[in-house]
Amino acid sequence: MINSVRAPGIDLEAEDQRFLQPSIGEQIYFRDGLCGTVQRVVINPNNRRVVAMIVQWQISNRQSELGSLMGGKTLLPERLVAIPMSAIRFLTKSSGFLQIDSAEAAGYSDFDPSCFIAPREDWTPPYPYCPDDVLFPREDSK
User: Fold this and answer.
1) Class for domain 20-141, per CATH?
2) pTM value?
3) How far apart are CA 91 and CA 96, in angstroms?
4) Quick one: the chain helix, strand, coil %, rounded to 5?
């Protein structure tokens, strides 16, 4: 059930009402065509909604800038970044599309495991997630 309660004098943004659950391993595309892969999700433990996704993506796809490494293979630098759900433009069962390009995503901080905690072993995550797919934000890291 999705809460769509309205009250006079209260202005809720449309993004606050969307219920988005990216799949683990799902491809997430930036506005400029680069893509990343969802590694984990961050869930608000109070309402069980996904508030961010941990995305692994390659910083650049310009192979000419990086040169040839390891016998002609080019290694691209990768980042692991927590991207808030508000950055999603739309989400399908197999892929997602962001409202930001990869340069804007570079402005997000690298994933810092100390800012998150794993749920207790007896906690049941919302479908379709497994306990290892989920992190909670640390309250003291806000």
Assistant:
1) alpha beta
2) 0.75
3) 4
4) 15, 35, 50
